[in-house]
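Q: I'm writing up a methods section and want to include an example of the input and output format. Could you take the sequence below and give the corresponding predicted structure tokens, formatted cleanly so I can copy it straight into the document?
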Amino acid sequence: MHLHGPEMTDYGDDPDPPLSAHLLRNIIRKFRRLHKGGSPRQQVVILLGWLLLLLATFRVFQHLTGQASKPAVICQPSTHEHPLRISLPREPDKVQLSHVWKTLKKIYDTHPPQPLDLDLKTFSSLSDFPSLEAIKTHTNISLGDVRAARNSHVEVTKKLGVYPNNLYSGRGIVILAGGRYTGFATTGLGMLREIGSKLPIEVWVKDQSEEREEWCVELAREGVACRRLSDYMDTELLEHGYQLKISAILFSSFEQILFLDADNVPIVNPDVIFTSKSFIDTGVVMWPDYWKHTGAPYLPYIVGLSDGPSEVLREDQTAESGQLVWDKRRHWKV
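A: Here is the clean output for your methods example:
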């Protein structure tokens, strides 16, 4: 398609110029005649009249030739077959999942985090990696609280039980949306299908107030199902946004999950991650964040990575929580 500037619209050599060109020439001729006589005001009025007539004639010409209903620019179609005809993910077993949650909640209530309150200091700047001494004094916790936290962690892990067979199955993508994040999720979902992802997708929102019914109907045509966390648990217990992520992963019907934040926009097909050597060997794929780990030396001891305070995490990179590949079966107790 070529775009011509005003200096290129010359029909002098065209034996059959378009109608608009004839009209334009007539207007110019008339205006030149008027220029020889009459006041400037008369010239302006007559010129405007001719321009309005030209516009009206052009609109009629468009209508008669059917040009008004045709797009000015013809866009190339999508490169993939649309729609992809991907089956919807199966409906999670709400009864069994609700039972799993009630069991977990009872365990957590019996063995709450220790101590219940922490006096945390705030680092002055995330751009400056804190010193080891600053990390050691960041969490003001007694040795007794450290031992209580370790014991609580051991008991919770012990009582989690075995992996619930037949509760989860298959692979899929989980996206957390709702509120202003629904718009972000729409972009990410569109990109996933555009780049060829054929995995079923679950979009989770907190409750019905954050769900858009018409949007969900459209998503279903692309193999995307909308889910509400409130169908499985009391969402009033979730005080922070990041808790919604963990809950969506837990209640998802998939056994192997690619979790994506709503504002994540993939640029290559992520389906191959599940067949990558890293995932096959470990059952988990994480992406590094910008900062080094700032966990206190007591953290490895509390979670069972060491027999006492340790600096083993000192050189580790933090992990970005906006994307995660996870195998529930292999990491049920993590």
